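Z., the sequence and structure:
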Amino acid sequence: MTDHVTDLDHLRDALREFAAARDWRRFHTPKNLAMAMIVEAAELVEHFQWLTPEQSVDLSAAKLADVRDEVADTLIYLVELADALGIDLIAAARDKMAKNAIKYPAETP
């Protein structure tokens, strides 16, 4: 099932299939998905708690594997949340970057 996942649309579709096969879609309300995403983000942050900036970029292979799983969990819930609300993540990110470019212009020499 996951071998064909190469972009956000395929990931969204695979997540829909995964949840439907388990009858989870009824639980995937925006509120529940947002809360689950924050829980996963907190689990991600926990791996970096108390590390120095230098340590945070030099993780062991085992720690990096754990961080990778938490990043994936957070992404999965973000994609599912966007799907539940009909938000195109790429378009939303592109639009937000344009707003940020106006709000925070690059300094020119």
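The helical segments are 8-21, 30-46, 53-56, 61-85, 89-103. The chain has a mean pLDDT of 95.

Let me know what you think.
H.
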